[in-house]
Specification:
18 helices, 7 strands
Length: 428
């Protein structure tokens, strides 16, 4: 999502003089200051090929490129113009063939939803013409994880995550999310308030919209969000920043990001091996500890790329990118968009949301496993949705959020199922 001030890519060859300079660079590019105005979203779907002669239900990359034509991303069609869809969205592809729409930024959540709905229907038409369908599911319940994209980034990622069992490949290839992005804030105090609130409300909203109890190939265990389970079991240095101890996210995010291990090191386009020295961080590379292995010091564009390989529940990308929500059934993705828009609508609402969420603000694992079956998490989720409904920008948004609050009060998932969780299962 583009935001109030777009971040231009770093100029090739621009060096980083010190760790302090690198941390300052991260703070500047990851937290763009300006009055909060814009909202955007990214929607992901699993894909399936319904052609009777297909030997594997995942569509071939060539079939996807053919179906998408001039809208195909260059990751599968290098010569594609990668045109923007009529509603302003761009198409990207995830490693297992999941397809993603990344919206343009809008200053109105209702307009955002309307344009995304238009583009999702347009996308479905393109795919269906080649016997490919999108599946509104946050986790693949039927297929083995299989990576389609052979880009060096994903080869290095799969290798890096191989040490944590099946979770890395499952996350990459068999899950889908709804992501919502909002502006960071007008000054350091507002940025800190919005950032900390988005984290505080995370477990309750994760539970409110959890709808992925089945994931083929996952170890045995009942989870409300198998998708979030995969993230929680990955490299914690990359996925769980200690945000509850941060007073100034602009400073602390840079410090944290530099200490995250390198996932890969970009080399030439013809070089298929982007593997990073095991366990080495960007800070190690910066200080010269990796001179023998890599043969050069990092530049600003290397740091830009490294920042795309950290996966916290809320990621700073100029704007604040909420990453903890499951893909929703049908067109129900409009609901979490309106919820986050409402909860971030004014400083007083942001502060009230943080207060409501505080009792369960650290319960990520419990929320992912038990969801609304946990009474305290359910109560906080209902309170947050009620606050969002009271501060929704339109009657339609208020009605949608109100329906979600009543669903949560009844302990029902977005698909209408009841989540069961025994207390002894609350920790893995």
């Amino acid at each position: 999502m583009a935001v109030t001030v777009d971040k231009a890519p770093a100029e090739p060859g621009v060096g980083l003089s010190s760790r302090a300079a690198a941390e300052a660079y991260v703070g500047g590019v990851c937290f763009k200051q300006g009055p909060p105005a814009l909202i955007g979203a990214e929607l992901e779907w699993l894909t399936i090929c319904s052609e009777p002669s297909a030997s594997d239900s995942r569509p071939r990359l060539s079939a996807l490129a053919d179906a998408l034509g001039p809208y195909a991303p260059q990751s599968i069609s290098p010569d594609s113009p990668a045109k923007v869809l009529p509603g302003g969205s761009r198409i990207t592809l995830e490693p297992g063939g999941q397809i993603e729409l990344s919206s343009a930024p809008f200053d109105d959540a209702s307009q955002l939803c309307a344009q995304l709905l238009e583009d999702s229907h347009f996308l479905s038409g393109l795919l269906e013409a080649r016997s490919i369908r999108t599946i509104s599911a946050a986790a693949d319940a039927d297929r083995q994880a299989r990576r389609l994209l052979r880009l060096p980034r994903y080869r290095a990622m799969e290798r890096s995550f191989a040490g944590v069992g099946p979770y890395g490949k499952l996350m990459m290839c068999n899950t889908a999310a709804t992501q919502v992005s909002v502006d960071a804030g007008g000054d350091r105090a507002e940025i800190a308030a919005r950032w900390n609130t988005l984290y505080a409300i995370g477990p309750a909203l994760l539970a409110a919209f959890a709808c992925s109890p089945d994931l083929h190939g996952a170890p045995v265990g009942a989870w409300a969000s198998q998708r979030m389970r995969t993230w929680l079991r990955l490299d914690h240095t990359r996925t769980r920043p200690p945000v509850r101890n941060w007073d100034d996210p602009i400073v602390d995010y840079g410090r944290w990001a530099l200490d995250v291990p390198l996932l890969c090191v970009r080399r030439g386009e013809s070089d298929s091996d982007w593997a990073a020295p095991p366990g080495a961080s960007f800070a190690d590379w910066l200080c010269g500890a990796l001179d023998d292995e890599i043969g050069r010091r990092p530049e600003a564009e290397d740091l830009d790329y490294h920042l795309t390989t950290v996966f916290p529940p809320v990621r700073a990308s100029g704007h604040l990118e909420v990453r903890y929500l499951d893909a929703q059934p049908g067109d129900q993705w409009t609901v979490p968009i309106h919820v986050l828009d409402a909860l971030m609508s004014a400083p007083a609402v942001v502060a009230e949301a943080a207060d409501l969420a505080d009792p369960v603000a650290d319960e990520w694992s419990l929320a992912a496993r038990c969801g609304l079956a946990d009474p305290q998490i359910r109560a906080v989720a209902v309170d947050l949705l009620t606050l969002a409904a009271d501060n929704a920008r339109t009657d339609t948004a208020a009605d949608q959020i109100g329906d979600a609050a009543r669903r949560c009060r009844a302990g029902l998932t977005p698909s209408g199922a009841i989540v069961h969780c025994r207390p002894e299962e609350a920790a893995e």
